[in-house]
């Protein structure tokens, strides 16, 4: 029987999909927001400071040590993350309204309330506003392979991870992002090319791990064939998810369909293609 593990949270899986960019973490402390970011500020939690006696003065050396130890990101980093979040949100809104190709970086900067140079500081290429340059999918997939138990094949471990991950695109947390990005990506040749490049890079990374683990000789095709099969399953399920979401299917129905189709695909990876599509 094909094993499909349950991920601990849908959030982790959403971050693993190369076509869905999560918002950066929002700071817990109040941060000054310019007037143009009023709507964003309204959604940022504000923590009231409890009334208390002012603390005794701390020696300068102690303050420096406290900053080094750190209780989270510093003010500069929080502001950087907030700016990055506004840029991502502005880009997502504009891409959804008019499509990726029709929106300029200058327009994104204007809506986010920053200058164009700031956008490029965070995202050197425009496609980076949609796809992570190094998607977390890479680390998660390779980790699933490295941590598989004795007796489990690479295709079973990697394929199970892929099926489990894509099935969570039907979760409430992912639904809006999947539908929005499906329209944006399918409306942009540039993004489609970049997504194929990312899938190629993931395939290469998995193939190299398999080759190293199996001590394959240069030129052996098995690691590359196995990697292509796994990432082919991933790409097929991702496109199916987009098809179904755009057709109005979502939630548990979508998750069940993706899991069912994923199990069928994984069974082919597990047991071979010898009996598939024989000429009669």
Descriptive report:
It is a single chain. This protein is mainly α and 280 residues long. It has 2 domains: 74-130, Homeodomain-like (Arc Repressor Mutant, subunit A); 132-271, Tetracycline Repressor, domain 2 (Orthogonal Bundle), CATH 1.10.357. Helices cover 61% and strands 0% of the residues. Mean pLDDT is 78; it is low at 1-56.
> For the residues shown, what is the average pLDDT?
78
Total domain units: 2
Shape, principal axes of CA atoms: globular
| Helix content percent band | 55-70%
Instruction: Round the Cα radius of gyration to an integer and report it.
Output: 23 Å
| CATH architectural designation of the largest domain | Orthogonal Bundle
Oligomer: single chain
Largest sheet: none
| Unreliable runs | 1-56
**Which structural category do the helix and sheet elements fall into?**
mainly alpha
CATH topology grouping of the largest domain? Tetracycline Repressor, domain 2
Q: How many β-strand stretches? A: 0
CATH class of the largest domain: Mainly Alpha
How many helix segments? 12
Q: How many angstroms separate the termini?
A: 29 Å
Short description:
With 280 residues, this protein is an all-alpha fold.
Topology summary:
Blueprint: H1 10-16, H2 38-42, H3 60-69, H4 75-98, H5 105-112, H6 116-122, H7 136-146, H8 154-167, H9 172-186, H10 189-213, H11 222-246, H12 251-271
Helix pairs in contact: 4-5, 5-6, 7-8, 7-10, 8-11, 8-12, 9-11, 10-11, 11-12
